[in-house]
Amino acid sequence: MPQIMLMKAEYLVLLSLLLTTVVITNAFYIKKQFYPSVVYLTKSSTSLAVLYVQAFVFVILFGKLVQRIFLGQLRAIETEHLYDRAWFSITETCLAFTVFRDDFSPQDRVDYMEQSPVLGTIFHARVVGLLSVLCLLDYLFISSAYMHTIAKGASVQIVFGFEYAILLVSVISTAIKYILHSIEIRAGEQWENKGVFMLYSDLILGFFRLTLYMIFIIVMMKIHTFPLFAIRPMFIAMRSFRKSCNDVLESRRAIR
Questions:
Q1: 125 closest CA partner among 70, 173, 175
Q2: CA distance 83 to 79
Q3: Which helix (H) or strand (E) holds 110?
Q4: Helix (H, G, I), strand (E, B) or coil at 74
Q5: How many helical (H) and strand (E) elements, i.e. helices and strands, does the chain have?
Q6: pLDDT tens profile 171-215
Q7: What are phi and psi of 166, to 5 degrees?
Q8: CA-to-CA distance for 180 and 197, rounded, in angstroms?
Q9: Of 39, 106, 142, 214, whose CB neighbour count within 10 A is largest?
Q10: Exposure string (b/e) for 95-115, b if CB count within 10 Å is 16 or more?
């Protein structure tokens, strides 16, 4: 069954590439020059539809490439989570050009460290590489949004700036869990204090995430309107922060 689906995907990729080639060739054949051909492509609904499909195919192929480099073969639970997150991302992107999601975060792969007794060097290199790339990209996008807002005033860059700030918090949370898991693995025995560190890290980072959502909503209400698309992620952040608070309180009561 997976081989059949793979063959169908390959046929779809080839079909989209063939259609794109035909559309571009037809435009150049009719207009003869580059600029008129580009104008023709942008004004033709059929040509745009084909180009959009081709762009979507390129995005999927790029995602597959990133997966191969940083994650390798996905487990069933990781594939399921990826599809679930992608669905919410698509719907929220249609609403507000932003996702507030961490689809490419190696959260599931880091959680897998507790279940697997043997982890090779490639596993650690992939996780560290992906976390580093995500941190760097989030920082660059935040800096770009900040500089653009300072130079040209309030715009959609504010939305993207807060989005990547929230994603950066998620990446930091995953990095902390990876470090704690790695310390326990190197120790060769169960680390009793790991749970305490994870509880407090979730509490602190959850507070930062919730604060960012609140600031974002206040800013959006002042410069534009109430961001309806932020209700669901903010509710999830509030619920997660409340759970972290309860976990910390229960942990302290148990210690006493």
A1: 70
A2: 6
A3: helix 107-111
A4: coil
A5: 9, 0
A6: 898 889 888 888 887 777 777 778 888 888 999 999 999 999 999
A7: -70, -40
A8: 8
A9: 106
A10: eeebbbbbebbbbbbbebbee
pLDDT over 60 (residue 251): yes
Cβ density class 34-59: b for 16+ within 10 Å, e for less: eeebeebbeeeeebeebbeebeebee
pLDDT tens digits, residue range 104-151? 556 666 666 666 656 778 878 888 888 898 899 889 999 998 898 888
**Tokens (6 digits) for 109:** 């792969």
What separation, in Å, do the N-terminal and C-terminal C-alpha atoms of the chain show? 55
| DSSP letter for each residue of 125-185 | HHHHHHHHHHHHHHHHHHHHHHHHHHHH-SSTHHHHHHHHHHHHHHHHHHHHHHHHHHHHH
Share of the chain above pLDDT 70, in %: 77
CA distance linking residue 188 with residue 209, whole number of Å: 33
**Alpha-carbon gap, residue 241 to 229, rounded angstroms:** 20
Q: DSSP label at 2? A: H
What distance in Å separates the CA atoms of residue 217 and residue 211, rounded to the nearest whole number?
10
Q: Which among 230, 221, 106 has a CA at the least distance from the CA of 163?
A: 230
- State the Cα–Cα distance between residues 34 and 118, nearest whole angstrom: 56
How far apart CA 234 and CA 117 sit, in angstroms, is 36
Beta strands in 17-166 (DSSP E): none
| Cα 44 to Cα 22: distance, rounded to the nearest angstrom | 14
Residue 127, number of CB atoms within 10 A of its CB: 23
Burial of 9 (0-12, 13-18, 19+ CB in 10 A): middle
Of all residues in the chain, what percent are helix, strand and coil, respectively (each to 5)? 85, 0, 15
pTM (global) more than 0.70: no
